[in-house]
User: Which sequence fits this backbone?
DNA sequence: GTGTAAACGAGACGGTACGTCGCGTCTTAAG
DNA sequence: CTTAAGACGCGACGTACCGTCTCGTTTACAC
């Protein structure tokens, strides 16, 4: 059998050092916070983690993947997400949206989230991974709350829930991304009100 | 007399070579299309443009600025923008949104626009420039059309027009950015309908 | 009980795998021939020999030692060496020197012998080993023949035999090493004649 | 005209920085003395010289070439070499040989000369360069002295002078290289005596 | 016209980081 | 307990670009 140019010799995951994996992800996370995405280098991650560069190259295909993983590891602590359901959709959404606004306004979230965004915009593969691992589960939880509202007659029964989420979140997301306006609790409220009017059940 | 630390010796714009400027912008544009934003290097731009590296560093502060300029030069052909105004807001907006959707779906726009987006997300300064030079004028034209609609009673008189634009465009923009759904003419129509319902004049 | 710094844990030679040892030496020899001394790596030897790297490190202290051993294994096939003794010293030496010249001129000997030389020049320890295992026995055989000649009155009785060997062989060795001249049978003859004149018995 | 795979873009020697060249050669020389040939790395030379690695790779093809050059630069200070000629060949040669022995015994010469030797043995190209730039001129000076001796009837008129030099120097060189014996003034004297007997004029 | 100062192309420079290779050590599983 | 296999921390490799710094050579304005 021909071997061709000899395939890249893939490593055996069973022997992977969990210690090193964690050290790399930690170092990546901290460096991104300190320096911002594009001033982080693989050499710096390796040095900070006390790890050989090869160990990074062995397990991740690119700097982006490491950093993506490091951020993902933060959120994916496995807990299943659940939105508040007091029966009052508008109040519940305002609670959630105000929290989201606060999160985006927190400077500590700035660097890693921008890093994540850059990754996802620039790399279709990471975008898919992002949707699967991060936004997917969260969106599903949100849609669950919306379905509950539909059953309660607070939202049009035939509303496209993906679209509802877009109308609710995309303006906020865009404003943050382009820095085109302030992220205030009032803004959060406004988005909820507008969305509910847009998808109000037919009277 | 001593010169001290001597200020950075800024060049005289009057003597700037238009030939070189164009060559650089062209080269940048083409390289971004061919390789994508982050595989483009200043060295490559200079080589492709047949220009010394110093000529680039003399007139632009960073790679981002060159590429930003090169994309900006495309759009800013100076024509003042004007949206259609047939008197039917919904129809006019659908026309415009369908065109926008088509533009985003065009693969030829993909590389430069993603490059631009990455710039703007990552660099607050470029974000400001972007709002001033690109999105600003376009948004102003859109808002002009919306004001006309307000006068015609087709839109709530007290609607925050910036917010209207966000609700109209941000979902589309986000869908494109995260590749989270198809960009179809129907989607464009839906966004218009929802937005108009959200900001309908109080009956 | 504490082990303290614990000595380097020397392996038990009785359990050594002869199979592995041979495979390593063979692989080393062949790789030196193919690639030359300094492009051979321990990793390559281990891979070619189908042996774990640790097995090499367990039994040899350095790459040099492995290669040295591999070349040594070739020659040291245990036979005791004996020079011809027809009674005519000049004729006998010419026979031997012509053979030596031919050996050095053989391209198949080139790579390993240069490798050996580099080792020996660079590493005093290997130099000692070389003298003990390789050149020593051969030189002793040569000196035996010279003593026979001294008894026969063909060589000064008080000649320093080590010096005789140096005068006889060093020029040849240097010429080969620096590639500073051709190695011909005539050259071999000339060296013998000169040496015999230099150490002729006092008339 | 086809460009092929694009040739390696050779640099323009006119623009070469003499400052950097000297700094590299100095650094190389000192590092070889401190660490010995094979523990010197190009990175270390560049760092010590305060020079970018690329500057070394731009002008030298290999570590060996740098170090070779650095040693060569020492000797090649252009002075024409001249051996003493008192009319007494034996005395003159003993003077020279004793000096040579002393030089080889000097530990300060040890590291660079072994480095040079390793280079020359391992690389035919450097061997040629070595003969041309270093050993050539020196040997020519020695042969000049020998010719003078031939005219004075102190050496066989038909002696092959290259061979005379080999018989004179190669034993010393080999003894140093293999560390097979002490390098003493007496040894130097002995070599001269033996050589002169071997190439004595026919009585 | 001519002189002179600028901007220009070219590209060498000191650096940083890249992604790869090999070192010598350490760990695991099989015999 | 040795072995084959191979991951590990480490450090050097040779390359690509960075942004700065000369080099001559245009080029265009002031004389």
Assistant:
């Amino acid at each position: 059998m021909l071997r061709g140019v000899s395939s890249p010799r893939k490593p055996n995951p069973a022997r992977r050092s969990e210690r090193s994996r964690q050290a790399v992800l930690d170092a990546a996370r901290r460096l991104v916070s300190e320096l911002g995405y594009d001033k982080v280098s693989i050499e710096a991650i390796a040095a900070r983690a006390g790890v050989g560069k090869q160990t990074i190259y062995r397990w991740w295909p690119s700097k982006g993947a490491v950093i993506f993983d490091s951020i993902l590891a933060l959120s994916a602590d496995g807990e299943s997400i659940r939105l508040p359901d007091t029966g009052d959709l508008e109040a519940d959404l305002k609670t959630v949206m105000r929290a989201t606004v606060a999160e985006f306004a927190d400077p500590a979230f700035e660097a890693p989230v921008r890093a994540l965004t850059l990754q996802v915009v620039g790399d279709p593969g990471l975008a898919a991974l992002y949707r699967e691992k991060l936004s997917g589960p969260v969106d599903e939880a949100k849609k669950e709350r919306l379905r509950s509202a539909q059953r309660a007659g607070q939202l049009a029964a035939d509303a496209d829930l993906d679209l509802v989420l877009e109308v609710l979140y995309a303006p906020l997301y865009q404003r943050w991304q382009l820095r085109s306006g302030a992220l205030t609790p009032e803004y959060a409220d406004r988005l909820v009100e507008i969305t509910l009017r847009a998808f109000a059940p037919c009277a």
